[in-house]
Amino acid sequence: MSDLDQFRQETRTWLEENCPPTMRTPMRSEKDATWGGRNPEYAHPDQKLWLDRMAERGWTVPDWPTQYGGGGLTPGETKILREELARIRARNPLNSFGISMLGPALLKYATEEQKLEHLPKIARGEIRWCQGYSEPNAGSDLAGLQTSAEDAGDHFIVNGQKVWTSYADKADWIFCLVRTDKSSKQGGISFVLFDMASEGVSIKPILLISGNSPFCETFFDNVKVPKANLVGELNKGWDVAKYLLGHEREMISGMGLGAGSDPLLDAARKGADPLLRAQIALFQVRSQAFKAMSERFIDELKAGHAHPAQPSMMKYYGTELNKTRHELLMAAGGSDALEWESERSHGGAAARTWLRTKANSIEGGTSEIQLNIIAKRILDLPS
Amino acid sequence: MSDLDQFRQETRTWLEENCPPTMRTPMRSEKDATWGGRNPEYAHPDQKLWLDRMAERGWTVPDWPTQYGGGGLTPGETKILREELARIRARNPLNSFGISMLGPALLKYATEEQKLEHLPKIARGEIRWCQGYSEPNAGSDLAGLQTSAEDAGDHFIVNGQKVWTSYADKADWIFCLVRTDKSSKQGGISFVLFDMASEGVSIKPILLISGNSPFCETFFDNVKVPKANLVGELNKGWDVAKYLLGHEREMISGMGLGAGSDPLLDAARKGADPLLRAQIALFQVRSQAFKAMSERFIDELKAGHAHPAQPSMMKYYGTELNKTRHELLMAAGGSDALEWESERSHGGAAARTWLRTKANSIEGGTSEIQLNIIAKRILDLPS
Amino acid sequence: MPLYHTDDQSLLRDTARDFVAEHAPVSHLRSLRDANDTTGFSRDLWREFATLGFTGILIPEAQGGLGLGHVEAGIVLEEIGRNLSPSPFLTTAIAAVEALKGTAQADRWFPGILAGKAVAALAIDEGRKHNARITLKAERAGNGYRLTGSKQFVHHGHAADLLLVAAQTDAGTALFAVPASATGLTADPERLADSSIAARLTFDGVQVDADAVIGEGDAALTRLLAAARTGASAELVGVGGATLDMTIGYLKQRKQFGAVIGSFQALQHRAAHLYSELEVARAAVLKAQQLLDTGENAAQAVALAKAMTGLATTLAVQEGIQMHGGIGMTDEYDLGFYMKRARVLAELFGDTNFHADALAQAAGY
Amino acid sequence: MPLYHTDDQSLLRDTARDFVAEHAPVSHLRSLRDANDTTGFSRDLWREFATLGFTGILIPEAQGGLGLGHVEAGIVLEEIGRNLSPSPFLTTAIAAVEALKGTAQADRWFPGILAGKAVAALAIDEGRKHNARITLKAERAGNGYRLTGSKQFVHHGHAADLLLVAAQTDAGTALFAVPASATGLTADPERLADSSIAARLTFDGVQVDADAVIGEGDAALTRLLAAARTGASAELVGVGGATLDMTIGYLKQRKQFGAVIGSFQALQHRAAHLYSELEVARAAVLKAQQLLDTGENAAQAVALAKAMTGLATTLAVQEGIQMHGGIGMTDEYDLGFYMKRARVLAELFGDTNFHADALAQAAGY
User: Fold this and answer.
1) Which part of chain C has CATH 2.40.110.10?
2) Which helix (H) or strand (E) holds B9?
3) pTM: predicted TM-score of the whole model, two decimal places
């Protein structure tokens, strides 16, 4: 038996013993997701159990080095672990922007002290992070950002405002782009980390058209940020941000991939009019082909073959697919799917999710921005 | 009985008596079209008969004034004539760029002498015209045109090259944009007419992907053009050209409207797979709605309500529809429609027409140019 | 008849536009929603519609109405669409009036409608998708009928005075005018995504007189649906048009990368394409309205109008949200309301696919 | 297996790319067409394919081939697609070899294929659209069968040595290996839009031995079609990829309005979208090839590959022509050839709609 076969066997056995049966059932709503943090919310106590057991082995972040709380697995082992988790339909033990976005950037750009300080807490779900990029006048155009960080000796004084901060009202720390030099545009931006409990931070959730408030406006009024919390070089935060945006894009593009049983196919099987059936059938061609593309992309990424701008393609295609998927689901659902509050409709789940997906192609860099990037960086078209 | 009712009755009677039965059958190919000119080609002698009878009454151009060879009909009468022609499925007595493009421009910009000289010959199909706009380096961007007309006293000396000249090899005269001032871009262009039999004119048909050659390259080598043939003011040819392009766009957009029995519906009735049927059904929604739009556009045009840039919308939408129509026809035709030379396929009619339609959204101003015009002139979006 | 509005119709449009924009702008819908209003519309506004004569727009002059047609009704509906005004106008003044016209029930209901008091609702759908299958049973009983079955997606069904109910009798389809007060009828109001309220209705042996039948066979239902669908199409044109205007306005004002985003060619081309789709849809709607008014066979033109407006306005709200970016996603901004209303209207009385399929069947494929 | 080419496969791609671009570029197709060649491909080129081992790419090493798989075959096919090289490679070295492999007929035909002499053609379609209905009749007669019926869209059908024929026996579908020399078989060659030649075949009581049956039931035909469809998909990826490259090249060079047109954002976005579709299609094809090679159930991946490449490459040629403007419409320029070939390949062995429908049926709707 090869080492990998043995690893698979051991992993399977361990998961059988340690993944609670409740954590192998589909999530009913967003509330079933585990986000950790200082004030964690668990809809079921097994969520905590499952998180702790996985974190214990470093398997919330299987491919991170063990000294930072990771599992130290090879790419091959990591893939097997993911396959085995998928096999038993295990829920994600920990949803975390720390894992999906900040972690990779810290691994690349942070000092050893910063890594040891932050990564293990991310891995164990002890600190929940949010991202401070967008500002009222800097949406697609991040270079226009104005939140300032003034040098005050051993710390910065941060003033300004962010918008579209995902779950800022639930986050413990923020990774944040601030302007440290007003004379240049992209050159004068730095990447800093700070505690959301710092004096001068205030938060206002934004009510969305879906009726939910996953995003906030976040205000900074003379917030003190130790210089030790600067990641990467001063005025070079743009590099960190770009690197990290690549990871955000990958994550969002994953939404094009329906996991487990597919509600759209279920709807089609229940009977759709012939034109809707045709639309679903053609949608499925793109959707399934994108699944293959995602496999390919991950494989190429691991092998270092992927074009550095390929995440933009994935983000563009995946989010557009997801929007189409929910348009089709609404068409299949008819007037049932239009109910907004009834129990029958699970509080308007279909319609609210449909509306939520409209942001997919806006957040994390709009589709237009991704197309610009593809045109310029992959196709080499001129400005 | 109202005057119009009476006109309808008289028209109906006259058409019954004068439109030969052969001219009420569908055209089998492009060869059945009547173009007139110095060396007219008639696939059937009735074509000439039908042309002469209609020209006699001025009904090849029913709404032109009688002194220029027109019928002098009111808009209401013109509409009735067209309806009665459609009722008996009469063929067009005369296809002519002189009627559809040059005529309206002459009516608006030409001197009385020019009108009396050219319009009656157009109306009677005695002179066949072609259009000299595009040049190798001035496709969408007409302002970049280089064919020069130098002042030589009572005439110009024209030198240069045109491309995409429709049927230049069959035309008797050309209406042509030439540069009369190199110092300004759009300001230095003039609109002139000249005989294609003039010394120094040579023509090379362009073989297209459809296997046909409806377009030519046209070369001018010191061609003498009398100054009396200048239409409109010197250096103001751009105004004439724009006015005329509007008419060209209308004509091309008409292609979105399938006349008579619809081959696409026939194909669908013969049986299409469920997805193709769905595509045809959705196409038909746009296609039929565009029919309504065409009615509306013509009505608004007549009433002077139409936005001056609306022809761009019509051209854009109609040509894109026509391309889609032929994609669907090819899908319906399957491998039968791919045959290129066989008798069974009428010499590859389906495939050749399909390929021909690809030029619809290029000639007469590309779709991109039309969208630019709509965005700027109708939606008032900034440059 | 030329395919544009006459001078009189343009005048009506100006009146309607001013009135609706002043009395029932989007903020009106928003305030009803935020107050968790359970009627779904303002009865005061409905009376004001009556004062202007709008509620009698299709009612013959001899019966006290304006005696106008579907073109004029559509002009009012387009403004309702532009402002997302919650109103029983479509179900009551258009569909119900069209169905009641010339029947014995007209005398009973027209006065209330003319006064802006009576409200009608349309009980047609029985499943999540609109279709031609009617299973609600109307059995002969006493000197009338007993109705048993259920309906859904009935706008104003809980607040209406009159329900127009499609039912199945021994002889085939029939359309019934049922007073909301009838015994055995329960209405279960549900708020929809667009803040409108539609009811699920249960008919538990609802007894009605014989004269409740306002039409037998498909004809009456077809006439009602033609009016309702054409009306919904006009409203969709309003929703789409306002969305386009709002979006173009934003494109001219929002700056990114040092330029107004409306100067970016990719957005310009998409906006121009959207404009084209909406213009084409508008023409299809006017065509259907005119044919209804001249009494010609309008069936295909109506299906076409509903199918095409569904396509065009859906594109409008999708492009509107995307071009606005984040701000369009906020509840505070009005655009989301347009997206929600567009979705409901697109579904109402058959969506694009339903009508495109119907057209295909009518064309013999 | 990771979803990208191994180093060996990349090496093969370089070899194939250089060879095909040098020996069979578009000018090769053009010259065959202009000479009104009646074979449809160059037999010399076919022998050169053999010299490189390409004709034996799927033939097991034990039988003298390279013993490679569909990934490798697809690499060669993509280059054929990029250059529009007329070749019996797909029908012979891929589909026929896959169908003959392991049958008694392999020994008879493989040597000729390895030598670049034998050419095979696939006689499947009976109507204008590819579908699962086979009506060509194979009746028991003597110690074999008698075939009666007709086929169409048979590439190389008039020039082939071997025909693989799908037929209906008493027991169900069967696949026959029929020598082209068989009595009663007539081939009517037709030039298609892309200058390829496909035959209409008539089987007028064609007598074959019992060992002409190379597979009974659907399995053999399914295997042949899976190979053929995956191959056509790979070729489509090549056609689409070359079209994109040509178009991007043109966008960088053509000037209008004082700027390179590739700097216009609307065109950039469309080009970027097209790139995305082609990348996704490429992934779907590689997935199907790998599954065929590992012997897993590839049916859905194959249908997906053919459906997706049909979409992506059709978009590529449409956008390619439009972005080129007039020059793309000229016969002198190569782009039109790509549009024509894309259309033929999209139709071959089932178009996007056919396969999307099949996938829907397989998914239970």
Assistant:
1) 122-216
2) helix B3-18
3) 0.91
Q: What residue of D is the nearest CA neighbor of C264?
A: D265
Q: Is there a contact between C5 and C13 (Cβ–Cβ < 8 Å)? A: yes
Which chains would you list as touching D if contact means 3+ CB atom pairs under 8 Å? Answer: A, B, C
Whether the CB of C3 is below 8 Å from some CB of chain D: the reply is no
User: A63-77, pLDDT tens digit by residue?
Assistant: 999 999 999 999 889
Q: Which CATH architecture has domain A128-235?
A: Beta Barrel (2.40)
Chains A & D: contacts with CB separation below 8 Å: 129
Q: Where, residue-wise, is CATH 2.40.110.10 in chain B?
A: 128-235
CA distance A250 to A240: 16
Token reading at D13:
């791609």
Chain D residues with CB under 8 Å of B140 CB are 256-257, 325
User: Which one-letter DSSP state was computed for residue C192?
Assistant: B
Quick check: D8 pLDDT over 90?
Answer: yes
pLDDT at B249: 66
Burial C221-239 (b: 16+ CB within 10 A, else e): bebbbbbbbbbbbbbbbbb
Which of D311, D338, D343, D349 is the best residue to mutate to test the B interface, defined by the most B CB atoms within 10 Å of its own CB?
A: D343
Residues A222-256 pLDDT 10s: 999 999 999 999 999 988 988 887 776 666 665 54
Confidence of residue B2 (pLDDT cuts 50, 70, 90): confident
| H/E stretch holding A149 | strand A148-152
A363 to chain B, minimum CA–CA distance in Å?
A: 25
CATH H-level, domain D7-118: superfamily = Acyl-CoA dehydrogenase/oxidase, N-terminal domain (1.10.540.10)
CATH architecture of the region B3-108: Orthogonal Bundle (1.10)
CA distance D214 to D106: 9
User: Confidence band (pLDDT; 50, 70, 90) for D111?
Assistant: very high
Q: Does residue A257 register a pLDDT over 60?
A: no
Question: A335 contacts in C (CB within 8 Å)?
Answer: 125, 128-130, 152-153, 192, 198, 347
> The CATH number of C122-216 is which of 2.60.40.2310, 2.40.110.10, 3.40.50.720, 2.60.40.10?
2.40.110.10
Task: Indicate the SS3 state at residue B363.
Answer: coil
Contacts for C71 with CB less than 8 Å, ≥ 6 apart: C5, C9, C286, C289, C290, C293
How many CA atoms, within 13 angstroms, populate the side-chain half-sphere of residue B327? Answer: 23
C339 touches chain A (CB under 8 A): yes
* CATH number listed for the domain at residues B239-378: 1.20.140.10
Cα distance between residue C93 and residue C118, in whole Å? 10
Contact D336 B211 (CB under 8 A): no
Q: Is B120 left (phi over 0), alpha (psi -120 to 50) or beta?
A: alpha
B277: nearest CA in chain A?
A275
Provide the strand spans (E) within A93-147: 129-132
Q: Choosing among A335, A345, A372, which should be mutated to test the C contact, i.e. which has the most C CBs within 10 A?
A: A335
CB contact under 8 A, C307 and B285: yes
DSSP for residue A133: -
CATH number of C219-362: 1.20.140.10
Q: Catalytic site residues of A?
A: 248
pLDDT-flagged residues of chain C (< 70): none
| B248: annotated active-site residue | yes
Q: Please, what is the angle between helix B274-303 and helix C299-324, to 10°?
A: 90
